Amino acid sequence: MIRRESHQVGIADAFVRPPNTEHILDKINHLVNWEPLRRKMEGFYSSSGPGRPAFPVVTLFKAVLLQNWHNLSDPATEEAIDDRLSFRRFLGLNMDEKSPDHSTLHRFRDRIAPVMDELFQMVNAQLAAHQLMVKQGTIVDATLIRSQARQPQKGNSDSDPDARWGRKKNALTFGYKGHVGMDQHSELIRQADLTPANVHDGGRFEAMVSGDEAMVYTDKGYYGRRRSRWLQERGIGDGIMAKGCRWQPEISREQAARNRAISQVRSAVERVFGTLKRIYRYGRCRYYNLWRNRCNFLVLCICYNLRRAVKLCECRRA
To answer: Could you tell me if residue 218 is inside a domain?
Structure first.
C-alpha cells in the first residue's frame, strides 16, 4: 500500500498557526528524531500496491502517544485530532487533511506490538544522547494493574485468559504486573515489562537492570543471595533491602539501618507508578490479553519518559 506524504503548509494553516508560541507537543517534536523509528515501523507496510494511501507511520505512532497522554479511546482520539490544532500540528497534518480513523489506530497498534521493545529503547537512546540519563543508579520495582475483565470469583477469566491473581500484602488483584527499572536521578524509565500478576517481582529483576549503572536499589521483595551474587558478578553495587527468613526471622540492627537508607532512595519509583496510575489512568489495563496490554504499557512508558524529558530540559535551561 502506498503512503501519503505531506510536507506543505496549507493556506488555512498559515492563518491559524500561532507564530511565536511553543506547545509541549512542539517541544517533544524538537526533542525526538522520528526518522529511526519511522524506518523500524515501515517494515510492516508496503510502499506500493493497490488501495488508498496509508498514513505515515510516524503520524500513527504520534497519534497513539496522544491517545495515552490524554486517556482517549480510539474513536475519541479520532475526534480529538479533528478538533485540536495542537494535535494536528504534532501529527504533521494540515487543516484540510483527514485524521486517522479509529480502526486504523487499532490495526497499527497490533502491527507494532512485536517491535515495541525496540521502539522503547530507540527513544531511550535518544534521551541518553541528550545526556538526560545519569546512569549512576537504577531503582527496580513492580506494581499490580487490574485486568479489564471483570474479576472472577475464583480461578481465571475466559474474557482475559492471560490475567492471573497477584497479592500485595493482604490484598488480591486479578490482572497483570508492570515491572520497571528507573534511572535514580533523572527518574526516567530505562527498562520495562508487563507480565501476568502471579509472576514474582524477582522473576524480571535481571531484565530491569541495564548493566551500565553503578548501583541497583530494590525493596525486600527482591531479597535473595542469587540476585545479590548476580549483581556482584557484574560489578554493580547491591542496594537490595534485607528481610528475615525462616531460620533468622529478625534482621540485625545494621541491616535495619541499611534498609532505611535504601528505602529513602527507592521510594522515588512510587512517583512513576503514581503518574502512570493517576495521571494516565493506568490503574486498570485497556485490553484483554497480555501482548496488547504489554504493548500499551511500553507506549505509556514512552509517554512518561518524553514528558519527563521535556521537564528535565527546562530545568537544565533554567
So the answer is: yes
